[in-house]
Amino acid sequence: MSFLTDWLNGLLIDGIMENLSGLFDNVNNQVGEIATQVGTSPAAWNVGVFSLIRQLSETVVLPIAGMVLTFLMCYELIQMIVDRNNLHDIDTWMFFKWIFKTFVAVMILSNTFNIVMAVFDVAQSVVNSAGGLIGGSTAVTSGMLDTLEAELTEMDLGPLLGLFLQSFMIQIIVLAMNIVVFVIVYGHMIEIYLLPSLAPIPMATVIGSMGHNYFRSLLAVAFQGFLILVCVAIYAVLIQSIAVSGDPIGAIWSCIAYTVLLCFTFFKTGSLSKSFFGGH
């Protein structure tokens, strides 16, 4: 009977270690995958989509933005003349100022796509720098798993069986979390492509509140990837406590809590980033 109990104990310990090893591998791979995804520039993430968005922005939306800018500058010129008593009280410098302002607006509008991509390139540079630091500090080492295995050998058959079932459940939860992460990260990248597609219209009103709000929203989306990366880094650091905890069962449930917390913080990164930059 003792031989059977020892055999079952060994079988359960092997199963638990296999589940948790896969869990840790998932975490390590996930950190690297998200760092790669959010740290990739829009031009490199998907060349076909990037080319399509650029073509739509420059051939479909830009002409409309040009008409909007023409209307705004003509309206501003009329208002300037009316405010100066219908040319009875006017200075030549006002026209030079209006010409210069129009020239700058046209230059910004004609280079809108490049300006938007420059903002994302700066943000991706920050994310890449952070990804290099985070990716090197969150790997779960085999020594931590050895510590947990030593603790498991001291447990009886009943607790081992319960821990095995819980470790199996955490594998399923992590799989579901991976789906959530996929949706959020890829949704973030698609949002990056959507912003430049209509960029010429708000940029045509860059002198007004619409253009300012767009630019703030642009910064918010660009730096959301950094917040996503920080969330994963915090999660990866917290989850390492599984391998060094004195209570393996409690550590498993802590992992479930961390997983739910990670998904919640992912959904908050968008609104949090907008609050930082005042975007709407």
Explain this structure to me?
This protein is mainly alpha-helical and 280 residues long. It has one domain (2-58, 112-277). The protein contains 10 helices and no strands. The radius of gyration is 28 Å and the shape is rod-shaped. It starts with a helix and ends with a helix. The mean pLDDT is 76.
Features:
85% helix; 0% strand; mainly alpha; 280 residues; 10 helices; rod-shaped
What percentage of the residues does DSSP assign to strands (E)?
under 5%
What's the number of structural domains? 1
Structural class: mainly alpha
Spatial separation of the terminal alpha carbons: 68 Å
Helix content: over 70%
Largest sheet: none
Shape: rod-shaped
The counted number of beta strands is 0
What is the tally of helical segments?
A: 10
**What do the pLDDT scores average to?**
76
Q: Taking Cα atoms only, what radius of gyration do you get, to the nearest Å?
A: 28 Å
Low-confidence stretches: none
